[in-house]
Amino acid sequence: MKILLALFALLMPAAVQAAGSVSLVSEVFVERTETSADGRSVTTRAEPDMVVPGDSLVFVLSYRNDGAEPATDLVLTNPVPDSVSFSGTDDASAAVSVDGGKSWGALGSLTVAGVDGASRPAEAADVTHIRWSLSQPVPQGGAGQLSFRGLVK
Fold first, then answer.
1. Above 50 in pLDDT, residue 1?
2. Exposure check for the chain: N or C terminus, fewer CB within 10 A?
3. Separation of alpha carbons 61 and 38, rounded Å
């Protein structure tokens, strides 16, 4: 079953909690690793026209402080689309939620109810949101990028 990229556009709003004026741009890329003619592995990212189950996606959230003052206490929250299974982030300080954004923590510290109703350790597939709390102020004109990975279900 093919999933249109338009679904991701609808599901990728990020929330910002910060003083000042911070602009956001969300992008989604399909990432593929192929073997070149000389036997090397080559990883490429492209804007997907269509994605299929098993495709590896990279979600990139770019931010920029367009305000006149440094943006302090910047918190950026991004939902994980229902059609995507979270597979990680390179930022060890990122927190995740497995309950729609009600509670946050490291994946290994969270639990969910299993099919039998008993609590079980949360898994990457349970992640519904990812949140970054920037520890340093973003200066006027300052910018950065955050990202996470997922697999199309």
1. no
2. N
3. 34
